[in-house]
Design brief:
The complex is a heterodimer.
Chain A: H1 2-15, H2 41-55, H3 64-68, H4 72-82
Helix pairs in contact in A: 1-4
Chain B: E1 5-12, E2 31-32, H1 48-51, H2 56-71, E3 79-83, H3 89-101, H4 109-114, H5 119-128, E4 133-137, H6 143-156, E5 162-169, H7 173-181, E6 190-191, E7 208-215, E8 224-232, H8 240-250, E9 260-263, H9 273-280, E10 287-290, H10 292-295, H11 302-315, E11 334-341, E12 344-352
Parallel strand pairs in B: 3-4, 3-5, 9-10, 9-11
Antiparallel strand pairs in B: 1-7, 1-8, 2-6, 5-7, 8-12, 11-12
Helix pairs in contact in B: 2-5
The chains are: A mainly alpha, B alpha/beta.
């Protein structure tokens, strides 16, 4: 699980071009949207594609992402339970 | 009709032109066939949160426009008009590569959103919260001139008072590889100072952004007046000499009143003849300069020529490195710029000292 969390942080920083944020700056419980990392709706679409491409998880309803992308902890747990690759 | 002035400028190029307090004090010499723009510290102008989705072309355009606006002491403008020959190439290549590499699946939105030609104009407007006229001209190597012409018409007719006008293009690997295949880019690396002596096909490709605040309100700090700008997609059976003569005649001028001719020679042996015809012909007694050994060739490289002309007219100084001959006028009052790329999209721009 810890490896998955680290992998998620690295992917988020790289794919969302978070220029001023380092992987080690992200706490497992930080809010990814809003007051936390400050991600926005375009980032949410990027994360949905990332789930599909990297873990074989298809989110048919983008609203599902609101709960799944709450934090690294929540996201990692969801991926761990639902991944197909 | 109201006169149109260049009130301020901002430039990002292969030279350190982003500092308006200097004027080519230090020339960077290159030996290559593709050269990249010198980056200012973009974080000084754009916050990381805003810049994280911007490719280099967008950053160059946004920062060049900010430098121009700062110099003009303006918070916003009435309109934003951008010229770009190829638009946002980096994001276009990224998006198209993703389509191919991922078998048309897993397509992400960011690079697609940022790949449109009007991204630069849009991002500038978002930054300024400018809801005025916003237009992007994509007319190959007369994209910048088309933007200037549109702004000039609006300002002359008092439809706007201040307009941000600029030219911007970025380069990217795959597009460059295609240009290399068809010899648009020189096969050999060329030293900047030997560009016009290379006698080979193709040009040294590059990138950059040059933005100007144009206004029908003259300021003490204004750089120049834009008297006329004209574009010609093709010349037909008319020679460039006759075209230049007709252009001057329409403006009640002749070659003798032109103090400086600024030429867009790029060292392509197949097409520099257009420039040579003018420099050795009707303008042989006029001081001549060139600039693409400093900024390279790209679709909006002529905007660097206008930047150079503006600086010369304001400072009355001519850097040694741009001189094509040693004719020396007493001062610089009237400057003519001529540019073309691969024998098409010719343009004349006539500037006058304020």
């Amino acid at each position: 699980m810890e490896d998955l969390k680290q992998e998620l942080k690295e992917n988020i920083v790289e794919q969302l071009n978070l220029e001023d944020i380092a992987v080690e700056d992200i706490d497992d419980n930080d809010m990814l949207f809003g007051d936390g990392l400050g991600l926005d709706s375009i980032d949410a679409l990027e994360l949905i594609v990332m789930l599909d491409k990297n873990y074989g998880i298809k989110l048919t309803d983008p609203k599902e992402g609101r709960a799944i992308f709450e934090s690294i902890n929540v996201m990692a747990k969801y991926i761990f339970e639902n991944r197909t690759k | 009709m109201k006169p149109v002035y260049i009130n301020s400028l901002g430039s990002i190029s292969c030279q350190k032109t982003f500092d308006n307090s200097s004027f080519l004090d230090e020339i960077i010499s290159y030996e290559d066939h593709i050269i990249l723009a010198v980056d200012p510290n973009y974080k000084d102008y754009i916050s990381p949160a805003n810049s994280r989705r911007m490719a280099k072309g967008v950053k160059m355009g946004v920062v060049a426009s900010k430098i121009a606006l700062n110099e003009a002491n303006l918070e916003t403008v009435d309109a934003i008009i951008t010229g770009t020959g190829m638009g946002c190439l980096k994001d276009s290549e990224k998006f198209l590569s993703a389509i191919i590499n991922n078998d048309e699946q897993f397509l992400t939105p960011t690079s697609f959103i940022q790949s449109t030609h009007n991204t630069v104009g849009g991002q500038i407007a978002l930054g300024l919260q400018c809801k005025g006229y916003n237009f992007t001209y994509v007319h190959a190597s007369i994209s910048f001139e088309s933007a200037v012409l549109d702004a000039k018409l609006m300002l002359e007719n008092n439809e706007a008072n201040t307009i941000l006008v600029g030219g911007v293009d970025e380069i990217e690997d795959y597009t460059c590889s295609l240009h290399k295949l068809v010899n648009h880019i020189k096969k050999e690396k060329v030293n900047s100072t030997d560009l016009l002596r290379s006698k080979t096909e193709g040009a040294v490709f590059s990138e950059g952004a040059n933005f100007f605040v144009l206004s029908n309100l003259k300021q003490e700090s204004s750089y120049a007046q834009i008297v006329e700008i004209r574009t010609y997609n093709t010349l037909g059976n008319t020679s460039i000499t006759d075209t230049a003569s007709a252009f001057l005649k329409e403006n009640n001028l002749n070659t003798e009143v032109i103090d400086l001719l600024i030429l867009g020679n790029n060292g392509d042996v197949r097409y520099d003849g257009f420039y040579n015809e003018l420099s050795a012909g009707i303008f042989k007694n006029t001081q001549q300069v060139y600039y693409k050994h400093l900024c390279g060739e790209f679709n909006t490289a002529s905007s660097f020529g206008v930047w150079l002309a503006s600086k010369i007219l304001k400072t009355q100084k001519l850097p040694e490195q741009v001189k094509l001959n040693n004719i020396q006028p007493s001062n610089y009052k009237t400057v003519l710029l001529y540019n073309q790329y691969r024998g098409e999209n010719h343009s004349f721009t006539l500037l006058r000292r304020c």
